[in-house]
Amino acid sequence: MPAAADRRELPKKDPPEGRSAIELHVPVPTIVKVLLTALLVWAALKLVPDFLFFLLALLLAVTLTPLVAGLERRGMKRGWAVALVALGTVLTIAAFVVFVGPPLVTQLVNLFGNFPAYRKSVQAHVGPNHPFVSQVLDQILSVPDSPELTSWKNRLAWGQTAMAAVVVAILVLTLTLYLVADGKRTYAWLLAYVPRRHRSKMASTIPEVSDVVIGYVQGQALTSVLYGTFALIVLTVLRVPAAVPLAVLAAVCDILPVIGVIASTLPAALLALTVSPAKAVIVVVLYLLYHLLENTVIVPRVYGKRLRLSPVAVLIAIVVGGQLYGILGAVLILPFVAAYPIIERIWLHDYLSDEVITDHSALEAAAETGSDHAVENVLRGEEHPEEALEPEAREAVRKVEEETRNPVKKS
């Protein structure tokens, strides 16, 4: 008989008592949707670095927009106003390249060329009497000899880096000017994605967030220029090598609160130590005195009270932004941290209790004046009596209570 005849049909097993057989059928359209979603997520993650440059262009465009609006109020047509602002921006960048670029490149080349001599000079000034300090400085001075930086020392790597920087700068500048010229249409096009019931909230959010961004970018540009100029004057007078690169480094590091002080002071002190220990001490003292002046006098006047952030919030924001997307992420996250109270008050009001919004507003306003009344009230779980609050805190609490009584109408 054929082998097939010997086969016996096995009986189907019934599922155990209390259990039912589960058959999973996934339709083909669902599988396609899952795959497309995964593809979109992968593409979004790949495009995040490019999105950061778009975000940088957006911040610059928001900062330049008031200049265009000011020229329009004086009777100039929008096209000419945009062209004038674009010309001023390009001329500013060109002036920096012409006047700062040549000495910057020359001094950088000399710094790398003479670095072994500078390293020996630092070690000679420290001497064998301070073994711990000498070991720490030796570790710091060994950074330029690391494999990562050594590969950058060849001309090809420098040329590629310079070309990439130029291309990115041109793209960011072009996108910035485009957003300045046609930003309102672009905003309206993107706003169409927002449900109409949320349009009124957007109308309240965008102007306030724009004010925060404008204040942050303009204030940061001014404080960076002031710090860079101060560093250039001090280092030039003391005849410290690579004064221009150190001044540019100081201006860039001024963007990063707290961490920027160390990042700008340490290299300047080390190169000043190649001249003499006394000049290194003078550099450290002057840098620290300047930052004390900046934090107590310059920043409050330039930024105003609205953009003064808690040091803890700044450190957390820098760590998170830096871990996600490096220095650019750490820089771009700060204005959005400053704008968070606006988001909380307008968008999160329906999800947070009125007490949370009121307490946060009172604490934020009280921090601007250094008052502890609101802090004590929150710790004791008490309400904020108007007579115990500073005028700024009183106004903030009154504003929140008014918005609580009259929420944004849904269209």
What does this structure look like?
This protein is mainly alpha-helical. Helices cover about 75% and strands about 0% of the residues. The protein contains 15 helices and no strands. α1 (about 30-75) crosses α7 (about 200-235), α1 crosses α11 (about 310-340) and α7 (about 200-235) runs antiparallel to α8 (about 245-255). The N and C termini lie far apart (about 80 Å).
Distance N terminus to C terminus? Answer: 82 Å
Largest sheet: none
What is the overall number of helices? 15
- Along the chain, the helix and strand elements come as HHHHHHHHHHHHHHH
Molecular shape: globular
Helicity level, as a percent range? over 70%
Average pLDDT figure: 78
Strand content: under 5%
What is the number of beta strands?
Answer: 0
- Protein structure class: mainly alpha
Low-confidence stretches: none
Gyration radius, in Å: 29 Å
